[in-house]
Amino acid sequence: MAERRGGGGCCPPMDLMRSEPMQLVQLIIPAESAHLTIDYLGELGLVQFKDLNAEKSPFQRTYATQIRRCGEMARKLRFFRDQISRAGLSLPTGSVLEAVLNLDDLEIKLGELEAELVEINANSEKLQRSYNELVEYKLVLQKAGGFFQSAQRSAEAQQREYASSQSAEESLETPLLADQETVTDPSKQVKLGSISGLVPREKSMAFERIIFRATRGNVFLRQAVVEELVTDPLSGEKVEKNVFVVFFSGERAKNKILKICEAFGANRYPFNEDLSKQAQAITEVSGRLLELKTTIDAGLVHRGNLLQSIGEQFEQWNLLVRREKSIYHTLNMLSFDVTKKCLVAEGWSPIFATKQIQDALQRATYDSNSQVGAIFRVLHTREAPPTYFRTNKVTSAFQEIVDAYGVAKYQEANPGVFTIVTFPFLFAVMFGDWGHGICLLVTTLFLIIRERKYSSEKLGDIMEMTFGGRYVILLMSLFSIYTGLIYNEFFSLPFELFGRSAYACRDASCSEATTVGLIKARDTYPFGVDPAWHGTRSELPFLNSLKMKMSILIGVAQMNLGIILSFCNALFFRNSINVWCQFVPEMIFLNGLFGYLSILIIIKWWTGSQADLYHVMIYMFLGPTDDLGENQLFPGQKTTQIVLVLLALISVPWMLIPKPFLLKLEHDRHHGHSYAPLQDTEESLLVETNQDSHGHGEFEFSEIFVHQLIHTIEFVLGAVSNTASYLRLWALSLAHSELSSVFYEKVLLLAWGFNNVIILIVGIIVFIFATVGVLLVMETLSAFLHALRLHWVEFQNKFYEGDGYKFHPFSFALLNDEED
């Protein structure tokens, strides 16, 4: 394996520690077995093909026609899925096709089904439109008929009243008037026309005003409100409408009214003024409505059965089309040889997959009855290979956390291995409460138990993110329980879980430790913080000191781990310059200052000294020869500090100056060599991956020097700022503890003190919502983001370049994750 050859003995052989050794392979495939070969390699999912036709447009490639066919079939399948979802049907999962169809048969079948479904939809749409028009026509007949009936009754009443008044009041003028009426010219009598229909209610007032203005008031318009919603025949939407009848005189007025109706989207229907014919029309319309309803229902049943049969095989068809489309996309990346009988493919694959790829090639040759087998060979290249880590459902989430910062360079040390432990641990340092940890654990176990169900469902963005990181949250909750036991906090309450407290009241009458004080009466509490500290005056200063020093120790340890990993990288890539001019001075500078501070913290804890470490560290630089006095922790401390300061000062130019000049000498020594012995694949990839951009072509000394100057300044300043950045562990831990204490004392205990059941219930509800909303959601997110920053900035920048690119193999297993 490449990691053993590359000097990887400094690190244990782990799948995640180094990316898989890769090789560039060339496949020469006979044209008759090319499709089946790519199919089998897609099932294997361990080859990332290179595009050998990058200069060609998609339309100029060999299999463009097949891809268009697959695209057309995918369009038909999307149409089917849309129709199935509109019909309220669900697509069954895990369906199996009765007989496996090839692409040609599937194309014919999909075309027939689409034509049938389109025809059914068109007929159904026409019938539904006719049905909606008849419903509106019936409403017009009913409402407008009411106008005429009321008008007829009113006219008959007026006529009877007029006849009675005429018989009672006869005068000399009456015969004259009667004669005048009888001589009226019938040709001058005006016949009124009418237009009836329905208009949207929101437009009815404007409709009436426009008609009145356009005809100068020479119309008579009546409207009636339709109580229920009416389905519009054109749009198919349910809207509120009014029935209208417009009486007019003259052809010009009629044309104006017709244009206004068209502009307002009013649907017009014929109307007979004869009451007997109106009743007959209503009867006829009602009969036609019943017939149409029966026909529409039968059509819907037939359409539902058709969609149901499509849905039973939809997933299998969809998978087949997507597989074929991906196969032809891959075939388009291959190039034909000069004889047009073979296709040539190039791609990256892990070395461990060589045997599997060769088996797949042989199987494809046999199954396709090809006379010539495919040729597999390894190419030598100076191109940087992709990065591939074999992960599982537990480690993949941690690897994604690292990859979000940057994909690892080929075979450099992967921080994902350590992130599996350090990330949940740093989170737990800030979230130390075993009560809250149990709540997180229960939530995560629920997600893990229902893992199979949720993995096959479409989840929301937040739920999908939480479910994807369920194993990260699981470890975070377990570590939180552990640190919570160390802090001895259960929703801010201490418990004597591991024995009795080492402290007791000063005398027998003592009841309040906060006022009287404590004395040590028993052995030290065996695990974590003694519960007697809780509630005392010295609790906050004690925990502040403990957590602040603990944060520095954790930070210095993790930064040292990062520098050690840079040493592992230098050994692995055989880069002695980075060992002596980067690793050694960085270790001296960091540990000469903050490593020494960590040792002082441990000595102070061990000896119980009262030395002021602030004073020691400040005057280590300002007055290195001054007498330490009561701040001396061990013999020879002054001499040790002087030596450490000198070493730290020497390490800065050590980091800055030698490396650029040594790189210049190395470049000059190898410059002009035209030939070199060939290396095997692993050796060539390993050495080439370590070469910087200045190793080829022009060597810019000024660029290298400026780059090293930036690195030196960044490391020197970062050693101070990064150590201070780890104090966020102390700050967030303190904030979490204090918030938990405030919610308990100011909400729960305060509600308990009222001796009222209602207030107590309200207090419990407020406490639960505050705990869940603030401590279990906001504080979890805050601690997660701070732990993420500590890994990305303070830890990974010590060794991690992250300028590689991911291994994206051609795999059918990834089709479900891709969008159409």
Automatic annotation (TrEMBL):
Molecular function GO terms recorded: ATPase binding; proton-transporting ATPase activity, rotational mechanism
GO biological process, one term: vacuolar acidification
Keyword Cytoplasm: no
Annotated keywords: Coiled coil, Hydrogen ion transport, Ion transport, Membrane, Transmembrane, Transmembrane helix, Transport
Subcellular location: Membrane
Transmembrane segments: 425-449, 470-487, 550-572, 584-607, 639-657, 749-777
Location (main, coarse): membrane
Membrane topology label: Multi-pass membrane protein
The organism's place on the tree of life at top rank: Eukaryota
Family: Belongs to the V-ATPase 116 kDa subunit family.
PANTHER family for this protein: V-TYPE PROTON ATPASE SUBUNIT A3, VACUOLAR PROTON ATPASES
Protein name: V-type proton ATPase subunit a
Taxonomy of the source species: Eukaryota, Viridiplantae, Streptophyta, Embryophyta, Tracheophyta
